[in-house]
Write a structure and sequence with these properties.
rRNA-binding; single chain; 6 helices; two-stranded antiparallel sheet; tRNA-binding; RNA-binding; Ribosomal Protein S7; 54% helix; mainly alpha; globular
Amino acid sequence: MRGKKAPKHKLKPDIRYGNVYVTKFINYVMRAGKKSVAQKVVYGAFDIIDKAIKDKKVDAEFENALQVFDQAIKNISPQIEVRGKRVGGANYQVPFPVRGDRKYALAFRWIIDAADKKKGRSMAAKLADELMLALIGEGDSVKKKNDVHRMADANRAFAHFAR
């Protein structure tokens, strides 16, 4: 790496929930700099989740959409991932533990990708659906996490290259 490391920007908490991770999620949803559109999508998804909680379609232990969001992110966040490493002319997929910030980045990306792939409804509805599926351990984003863990487990023999 050359030069100095880019400074980390402090994010302001979002306007509705006062949560920094919701702000970060809105920034991940945002396309072409249209933050107000991204906010409408995310808050629309949270409103759908709140309505599902009120209609008892989600476990009673959750009081609002923010708690559902936090638990869904925890269910999707990977603990270990594989990275390619070149050793003696051969490339090995070496399992590495995932850092804290990267866990959130991967979880956000997987949720948004899974919601994007679904067709026929608004992005807010697809996002709410994916978050509620992640809450119970189902959905494409949870499948992606399990695939990453399975890949890391299969390449456990190369863990000694991690140093």
